[in-house]
Amino acid sequence: MSLNEYFEKTVAWPFEEARKIVQRLKKIGKREVILETGYGPSGLPHIGTFGEVLRTTFVMWAFRRLVDVPAKIVVFSDDMDGFRKVPTNVPNQEMLLKNLNKPLTSVPDPFGKFESFAHHNNDMLRKFLDSFCFEYEFVSSTEMYKSGKFNNCLIKILENYEDVMNIMIPSLREERQKTYSPFLPICPKTGEVLQVPVAEARPQNHSIVYKNPNTERLEETSVLDGNCKLQWKADWGMRWTAIGVDYEMNGKDLIDSFKLSSRICKVIEGIPPENMTYELFLDEEGKKISKSKGNGLSMDEWLKYAPAESLAYYMYQSPKRAKKLYFDIIPSAMDDYIDALTKFTSESPEKRINNPVFHIHNGLPPNYGDVLKYSMLLNLVQSCNTADETVLEKFIEKYSKDVSKSASELMKKMAKFAVVYYNDFTKNTRIPIPPTERQKDALVQFQNELCKLPETSTADELQNLAFEVGKKYYQQNLRDWFTAIYKVLFGAESGPKIGSFVSLYGIRNMVNLITERTR
């Protein structure tokens, strides 16, 4: 079977999504594809935003492997939205309170660095996306409205005002039905985005009439050139048409919104995009992560403790399942990424396409060979009782004699991350437990047997020795034996293969560690 045939048949989810776009092109005859992802810059960018761009990138890459058609990602910032709520995790709270309801691009930057709060948050997002080398085109809602690029579609919304209202009204609470309008005028006096009912729609004038709450008078304003913006469900459907969006993902909390926006899109003669609904990202307590609350992990926080590839790996896995994002998952995500890289080199073409690293690296993952796990390095830091990176580097140099330069560099990079993670999280939590009598006897026996072996013993030989000792003391359940090793020596529930650890750490060092922990 050829590689292209594997692409056509694989169940890897990016290819399944890409095939939906291919079928769409056949129906509408389009020769360019636009994939959109949205960003609301009302708070600092978080991992959920990054995850949506990353996953959309996976779909774009898969699409390009299926057909030779230009495709690009548009990252759309809703930066003309009214500023409704002050995030709790930013400075200058009082100043921000005074600017509520203004477009985000009119709200001063609380950090004092940019033209507006939206410009600050947009810049943070773009810098991160650029650091990961994403291909994307950044589009500002404010620029699109004020430049007139949305004007034609805004006119269509106005011309079909009643149809749009008939779509939206049944979805609203009774009280909201009385005040709803798809158009939100910008007050010429205060600059606020006004949520007011429209007294009259005047398509012939490209305008609406509304009662301004600041003047108590009926006023007429053009809907063009940024004088009004649309409520977001109408806005979503309108911009699909204006930009020509073919594909967009959304969280499951927006399923109903996507349906309503799709109907509005059709009213103005647009074609709603193909869609994938993903589960939400949750914090450690199982609550939805929020930009305004600042709960869960930020992108910067993850990257403080592990390379971006580990985050990409975590994002790839099962997008239709809810994911918790908290600090404890970082080491395991990095270890899983390394496992996937190691497997990739020996896999068949079919299995490679289903391997997450194929998608993370656009089909060309690095071949590091045999590298140390993140969990191994954390155990080394714990065992050495030091945050000195040079100590870890000595162990890595010992291990690196038979590995590539790139693998050695990766391990040294991980060592730096492991030290930071240890200092911030495990130093005061991974406390070795006092051994029970059986645990102590087994560990001392293991220690005695280790003393009989040369320092040049292989990881397999050391692992076999651990098994033999375990069988003597833990015949019923060897898992309890290895759990005892991790808890007594490292204060952890689990860890890397003990044979591999001893081979790296050194037999004499391990003997001394057991002595220290079993006194």
Task: Summarize the structure in words.
This protein is an alpha/beta fold and 519 residues long. Among the domains are: 3-164 and 231-282, Rossmann fold (3-Layer(aba) Sandwich); 437-517, Orthogonal Bundle (Arc Repressor Mutant, subunit A), CATH 1.10.10.350. 51% of the residues lie in helices and 11% in strands. The protein has 24 helices and twelve strands. The protein has helices spanning 3-9, 13-28, 47-66, 93-97, 117-131, 141-146, 151-159, 161-168, 174-177, 232-243, 255-267, 299-305, 308-316, 329-344, 349-354, 356-360, 374-384, 389-399, 405-426, 437-451, 459-473, 478-490, 498-505, 507-517; strands at 33-39, 71-77, 137-140, 183-185, 198-202, 207-212, 217-222, 228-230, 247-251, 274-278, 281-282, 323-324. The strands form four sheets. It has a five-stranded parallel β-sheet. It has a three-stranded antiparallel β-sheet with strand order 5-6-7, with no helix packed on it. Strand 1, helix 3 (47-66) and strand 2 form a beta-alpha-beta unit. Helix 10 (232-243) packs across helix 11 (255-267). The chain starts with a helix and ends with a helix. The model has no long low-confidence stretch (mean pLDDT 91).
